[in-house]
Amino acid sequence: MKIDILTLFPEMFKGFLSESIIARAIKEKKVEINIYDIREYSKDKHKKVDDYQFGGGEGMVLMPQPIFDAVDDLKKEDTKVILMTPQGIPYKQKLAYNLSNEKHLLIICGHYEGFDERIRSLADMEVSIGDFVLTGGELASMVVTDSIVRLLDGVIKDASHQNDSFNDNLLDYPVYTKPREYRGMKVPEVLLSGNHALIDEWRNKMKIERTKKRRPDLLKGDLYE
Ligand code: 6GU
């Protein structure tokens, strides 16, 4: 899979691409990730990428030209273009699974102040990562990329995401490691029993209990269809 990201702030991606599971996935060629600087596509002699908005108002607006030219350059036949914006559809694990089957994603990071409305016409999909406002789409694009890359074949053990929260609209069960007792808090007896049928039953029960208590909205299911 190839993921191309268009941004005004390429430096923000350095840590993300050079650490941990994402770095390993790139090294092992499970994914190719390229960061493109929107400014490099500006035809303005000062490499300008934004301007005042028609009608007046605070803030600079990302101009169409650099983005349209970048998409013309990078979009191929099987490319899915995703625009990161708080006005997009809410990002969910289901969409991470669907996108992990694409060949090529081109992710456009929105600007803090906004972008020219005509840029929307380039996107196959507009995505938001939640009901809060970020200074730009960069962190959101990293969230989306991270959630997709970990689902690609061979990036992490299959069993690690088969039990993910949200796969069945349920939160994960609690897990413990050594020691058996820490500061008076004990590992539940059932986990030490060696009885795997009993352990599975306990884990399922905990998933349901925890979801009821913390995220009753998930149990309705409709949010994650
Ligand atoms: Cl995709 N962009 C920005 N700027 N803020 C957000 C977001 C995206 N998703 C949630 N908040």
Describe the model.
This protein is α/β, with parallel strands linked by helices. It folds into two domains: 2-149, Alpha/beta knot, CATH 3.40.1280; 163-219, Trp Operon Repressor, Chain A, CATH 1.10.1270.20. The protein is 32% helix and 20% strand. The protein is built from eight helices and nine strands. It has helices at 14-18, 20-27, 64-74, 93-99, 138-149, 158-162, 196-214, 216-220, and strands at 2-7, 32-37, 50-52, 60-62, 79-90, 104-109, 125-128, 181-182, 185-186. It has a five-stranded parallel beta sheet, with helices on both faces. It has a two-stranded antiparallel sheet with strand order 3-4. A two-stranded antiparallel sheet has the order 8-9. Strand 5, helix 4 and strand 6 form a beta-alpha-beta unit. It is elongated. The mean pLDDT is 95. Bound molecules: 6-chloroguanine (6GU). 6-chloroguanine is lined by residues 84-86, 110, 128-130, 132-134, 136-137, 140.
